[in-house]
Amino acid sequence: MPQNMPQELYKQVIPYKPKKGEDYMSPEQLVHFRKILEGMKIELGKDIDRAVHTMQDEATVFADPNDRASQESDMTLELRNRDRERKLIKKIDEIIAKIDADDYGYCESCGIEIGLKRLEARPTATLCIDCKTLDEIRERQMAK
């Protein structure tokens, strides 16, 4: 299951099976991936709304410093998660714009097809598996 995809949405998605001789990123494929991305965006929006309401409900001031510290730590973690979700929504919007521009499904680095299986696993992928692997190797080397 994709790391950032809400689990309840992923259970509803039926993997795309291309027809024999179907071109890569055909209109049907683009509709399929748009549906997945829009569903992800809706689910993430619901998660953010739930979290905001929960944080508002739990905004109690504790007299005990330990309780207050624990609450602040929980809030910080929650805010970090919400920020991650907000960034994912922004990326989803960018990917939907790529679909609209008929530029979806191709590696931003080398231009080859990313592949249906990779896009099913990670609909927000912008790099083919080879370029992503090289990118991760470079990141690890820079971190040393």
From TrEMBL:
Signal peptide: none annotated. SUPFAM superfamilies: DnaK suppressor protein DksA, alpha-hairpin domain, Glucocorticoid receptor-like (DNA-binding domain). Transcription factor that acts by binding directly to the RNA polymerase (RNAP). Required for negative regulation of rRNA expression and positive regulation of several amino acid biosynthesis promoters. It holds the Pfam family zf-dskA_traR. It is found in: Cytoplasm. It comes from Nitrosomonas cryotolerans ATCC 49181. It comes from the Bacteria. GO terms for molecular function: zinc ion binding. Residues 103-133 form the Zinc finger DksA/TraR C4-type domain. This is RNA polymerase-binding transcription factor DksA. Residues 29-99 form the DnaK suppressor protein DksA N-terminal domain. Belongs to the DksA family. One of its GO terms (biological process) is regulation of gene expression. Its main location: cytoplasm.
